[in-house]
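Q: Could you fold this chain for me?
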Amino acid sequence: MIFKKINLKNIRSYKEEEIYFPEGAVLLAGDIGSGKTTILLAIEYALFGLQPGQRGSALLSKGEDSGEVTLELEANNNHLIIERGLKRNNKSINQDFAVVTINGARFESSITEVKTKILEVLNYPQDFIRKNNLLYRYTIYTPQEEMKQIILEDAESRLDVLRHVFGMDKYKRIKENIQRVTIQLREEARGLQFEVAQIDSKKSDLDSNEKFISILNKKLSDKEVFIKEQIKISKEKEIEIGLLMEKTSEREGFKKEIEKSGIVISNKQEQLASINKELISIELILSKNKSDFDENNILEIIKKINSKTKTIEILNKTYIELFSKNNSLDIMIAQELSKKERVAKLSFCLTCLQDVPDSHKHNILLSSESNIIQIKKDKLKLDSEIQRVSSEISKEKENLKSLETEKSLLVIQKIKLEESKRYEIKKEELMKTKNSIEKDIKLMEEHVYSLKESSFEYLKFEQSLKSKKDEFNLSLKIEKNVEIEQAEIKKELELTVKEANSLKSEIAKSEVTKKKLIDLLDKEIWLSNNFTELVSFTEKMILTTLRKEFTKLFNKWFSMLTTDSFGVYLDETFSPIIVHSDFELDYEFLSGGERTAVALAYRLALNQMINSVLSKIKTQEVIILDEPTDGFSEQQLDKVRDILQELHVKQLIIVSHEPKIESFVDHVIRFRKVNGISSVQQNSNDKIQTF
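A: Sure. Below is the predicted structure, expressed as structure tokens.
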């Protein structure tokens, strides 16, 4: 992997900057706090995003809402452009987006998926996707204080880190998994032991069940024999009952006949009572309808009525004629009065048109007056006659009304007489029917008496039938009870057989479980003892081999960095042991330069070890050293030149504020900070960065 270029926007003290990374040894020079370490943090962020426990506020510039890092690099014959963004919200600063472009193909997805894509290109193990990037820290870039920290860690913590970096933590995980598996096997074995412990008890229960099944089968056989005998007895009783029922059925016929005859007698008696009641009613009607009616009397009355009717008709005709004449006289009077009025108003003759003398008009008026008087006299006579005729009509009508009333009474008497004749006829018919019914009742009563005598003779068969039915019902009850007992025995037998079969099945399963338990215990013993020891031995042998190689490399680099006759080696916990004049020196009592030399030698040895063990990773061509000469003397600084030449990497990036280092490298990128804003400038052989 070779870094080509990085662009920063609102990252810590950088507003917007672009830095190119040439191949060879490159020095990032500048005063403390000028922004050199920011470049290294930005490179790591571009590759892997925010690390667990790392906050976005450590990268985003204060007061800015968003920031971006774009890193261009080559790895495994691929050209990559990685873009990552930061965004501030109300509560925190989070990763905003992640994009990787590989050979011109842009891939934009979630933070984790982009990281996975980058790790695939770098050929990093996939278990690093959700972990801290220790592999990157110990192969490419480790802040100097972190390398010192691993030396100062307690032995177990350091071993855990190195196991992880070398990919050796799998052995620890294997042992932890073995422990979890053995615990699980023990738990499972405890459950199986309880089940296996029940085998003897289940076998005893099975033996008891089989004996009880034998007893139940014997009882069931006895019940079947008894039921057959009881069925035979019941059939015999049933035959006897059939014979008796034939006898009693004849008595039942007599009873039904007596019942029918009783109904007939009852109906006849009801008819007789009804006839007697009707005869009494007829006698009452006949007594009421007695009269001295004579047919001649009604004929005489009819003649008188006809005579009166004719008389009234004649009088009515006379009255009408008189009334008509009276009306004529009234008309004549009106005509004379009209004539008088016309003559009184007449001044000339309407015929000859001559004047009419008063004497002539007077004579005409007198004549009219005389006529009116005479007409009135005639009218008085006529009114008197009308009055007389009207009075006679009223009188005759009264007489006619009396005759009509008398006629109605005679008609009623005639009707009653005719009704009495009909009732007499009906009375005779009812008397005949009564006599007939009385004879029938007598015959039916004699027939019923005869039937009762015959029925009494069959009473003994009915009593015997009742006794036989009781015996038959008792036999059926006994049979039913035995069948119920038989069913209960069958059910109990079925349940016992089922329980026995279940016990057999459980015993068979328990035998399998017993075998499984033995296998589990064998596995648990093998895992706890043999396999765990094998894993521990394998891990120890590999760690011993790694430690020997690590010690050789560590000793090589350390000897290049020191002038005194120091000896170094690594103990079983990979702790550096420094020996001087046959005395072991504690790391805490070393000088600052010596401690830096130990840390740098440890760092370089670890880098070579990782690249050797994990030879497939595609990051062997680049190393970043952060302040590797802190506390070095002038002599030690001179030895750094030899170290850099010995590394043999395509790209070496060094962060240092030591001016002497500039003569050791191929390129220098200078950093400075003005008014809190960092900017960069590369040397004359490189592309110049904007201030």
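A (continued): Residues 459-561 form the longest helix (103 residues).
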